[in-house]
Amino acid sequence: MISNPSTETPVSSKLEALLNLQRIDSQLDEIRRVRGDLPEEVRDLEDEIAGYEVRVSKFDEEIAALNDQIKQRKQAAKDADGLIKRYEEQQQNVRNNREYEAIGKEIELQKLEIQISEKKIKEAQYQIELKNTDIAGTKQRLEDRKKDLENKKGELDVIVSESEADEKKLMDERGGASQPIEERLLTAYTRIRGNVRNGLAVVTVKRDACGGCFNTVPPQRQADIIAHKKIIVCEHCGRVLADVEARNA
Ligand SMILES: [Zn+2]
């Protein structure tokens, strides 16, 4: 309970001032809440786009590596072909059967080398095809996300520029609204607002319940609140109970 030793300002005026401040702060909370979601969405999209860009550049590197492999294999097959031609010439001039057969084995080896190279080239070409399909999908998603980002950024710019004026006006209003509230009470108000989830530090009693935590406020306590002799807080949540709303309202 926040007691009221001073008699300078009536409690009812203090409560009125607190309610007014709460009204302004709730509007400021709302502006920041609306704006609060969009920057996060923009950041998420930027992260997603960066991820796709890394993926595309990785694909490009992988395809370049596969093309290098193909080039090397083509060169190896060409070299083997050249060797075969040389061996075949040598075979014309052998002195005996043993030399002929030895060269024949070399020729077989080079033919095998060519077969392996051709197989590897086909494999690499197939890998490139797969990756190209994959890249096309990723690039499409990247383009879509970039459009989304552009839209969200536009939305955010509009909201920020729209609410900037409202925010400034409310901040000015807030300065005036907090002025008549004594330091001690203002500190308590700020502390309570920081402790509760919905930012409401000052509430009214509605249908016998605290407007902040919805726990029941006993009749005697309600009578004390209505009397406005001292500032009364909710015994459950600590929020200031400024008034009791009419039951038939
Ligand atoms: Zn409460």
From TrEMBL:
<feature type="coiled-coil region">
    <location>
        <begin position="42"/>
        <end position="159"/>
    </location>
</feature>
<protein>
    <recommendedName>
        <fullName>C4-type zinc ribbon domain-containing protein</fullName>
    </recommendedName>
</protein>
<dbReference type="Pfam" id="PF02591">
    <property type="entry name" value="Zn_ribbon_9"/>
</dbReference>
<feature type="domain" description="C4-type zinc ribbon">
    <location>
        <begin position="209"/>
        <end position="241"/>
    </location>
</feature>
<keyword id="KW-0175">Coiled coil</keyword>
<dbReference type="InterPro" id="IPR052376">
    <property type="entry name" value="Oxidative_Scav/Glycosyltrans"/>
</dbReference>
<dbReference type="InterPro" id="IPR003743">
    <property type="entry name" value="Zf-RING_7"/>
</dbReference>
